[in-house]
Amino acid sequence: MAFVNSEYCFTFVDVGAQGRMNDAGVYATTSVYRKIIRNELLLPPPEPLLGRLKKVPYVFIGDDAFPMSNTLLKPYGGNHQKGSLERIFNYRLCRARRVVENVFGIYASVFRVFRSPMLLQPDKAALICMTCCLLHNFLRRSATSRKIYAPTGTFDYEEDGELIHGTWRNDIQGMTSFNPLVKKPRKPSEEAKDIRREFTEYCMTSGAVEWQN
Questions:
Q1: What is each CA distance from 111 to 73, 115, 172, 188, 193, in whole angstroms?
Q2: pLDDT tens for residues 61-109?
Q3: How far is residue 84's CA from residue 89's CA, in Å, rounded to a whole number?
Q4: Residue 78, number of CB atoms within 10 A of its CB
C-alpha cells in the first residue's frame, strides 16, 4: 500500500499485508489509516474549493477498490452517459490517479526484482520493497539523476486531449508480481457522498477544463 505525490514520489509505503485480504482490510492495517481516523495526520482544515462556498476536507484519491470516506475519494461505479457529472468526475479523478499508475510502472520497470513473485521470506521481501521505494525517491529528487532515471516520455502525458503512453509500459509485459486488490462492495456515508458531490460540481463549474467533455 502506497501514497504518492504529484512529483511521482512515494510519500507513504506500508509493506506486508496478506495477499488474500480485501482492499478495506489492507488499508485498515496501515499506520496512515489509523492516523487519519484519529485526526493525527495534521492535514489542513477544510476549506472551499476555488470559486465554491462549501468547505470540504483535504482528501486522498483511490480507485474503486477502496472504501470511500470523508478523506478518500473514489470514482462513481458503473457506466455513465457522455457529458454527465459522474463521467466527467471519473475522468478527472482518473487523470490524477494516473500518476500513481506511472509511479508503480517505472518502479517495476527499473527494479526488475518486481517482474515476478519474490521467493523470499516476508521480512526480506519487505526490506527489498522499502529499499527500492527509497531509491526511487532519491533518483527522482536528485538533480543529477532525475532525467536519467525518468527521461522525457517515461510517464504518460496528454497532447491535444489525447493520452500518450509512457515508455515504461513497453517494459512490463507479462509482469506478475503486482496483483489487484480484491474488491468488496460497501456503502459510503452520506457525508462522504456530499463531499464527492462537491468535488463533482467543482469539476463542472469553476474547476472545469476545456477538454474534459
A1: 30, 8, 11, 37, 39
A2: 988 888 889 999 999 988 898 889 999 999 999 988 899 989 988 888 8
A3: 9
A4: 8
Q: Could you tell me if 32 and 14 are in contact, meaning their C-beta atoms sit under 8 angstroms apart? A: yes
Give the whole-angstrom CA distance, residue 72 versus residue 195: 10
- Could you tell me where the beta strands, DSSP code E, fall in the chain? 2-4, 10-13, 47-48, 55-56, 60-61, 72-73, 157-159, 162-164
Place of cell 511521482: 8
pTM of the model: 0.82
Tell me whether residue 121 is exposed, middle or buried, using C-beta atoms within 10 angstroms of its C-beta: 0 to 12, 13 to 18, 19 or more.
Answer: exposed
Q: Which residues contact 159 (CB under 8 A, 6 or more apart)?
A: none
Q: How far apart are alpha carbons 66 and 69 in whole angstroms?
A: 9
Q: Given the C-alpha cell 525518468, which residue does it identify? A: 150
